[in-house]
Design goal:
alpha+beta, GTP Cyclohydrolase I, domain 2, four-stranded antiparallel β-sheet, elongated
Length: about 120
């Protein structure tokens, strides 16, 4: 087993509980950590024997296009889609970071992490 990390996927999306967030949107960073059996890739040096990072990015991007009120919902949806669509994944952890959240204070970010 081994881990693959796809880090700092930058997304602009319209998640949040406030109407303004739906209209204006906000900036997000998504981090994904995947556990997978890498033994075939160690030997073959072939993309089909590992997890394709492009597919990971495409799934993250697609799932963030679906509006949610909560970033918890976004993170769970991404994790579930990754596990369902990429069969080589044994475990996945998804972190969704919302930059400059509109919470009435000077806060750089809020984040949630979901594992499946």
């Amino acid at each position: 087993m081994g881990k693959i990390r796809v880090s700092d996927i930058r997304i602009r999306a319209n998640h949040g509980c406030m109407d303004e967030e739906a209209a204006i949107g906000g900036d997000y960073i998504i981090n994904v950590e995947l556990e997978t059996n890498m033994s075939a890739a160690f030997e073959s040096d072939a993309l089909e024997d590992t997890v394709d990072y492009v597919k990971v990015h495409d799934i993250v991007f697609r799932e963030t296009r679906i509006r949610s009120k909560l970033i918890e919902h976004v993170a769970a949806r991404i994790a579930d889609a990754l596990k369902k669509e990429i069969h080589a994944i044994a475990n996945v952890t998804v972190e969704v970071i919302k930059l400059s959240p509109p919470i009435g204070g000077n806060v750089g970010s809020v984040s949630v992490e979901v594992s499946r």
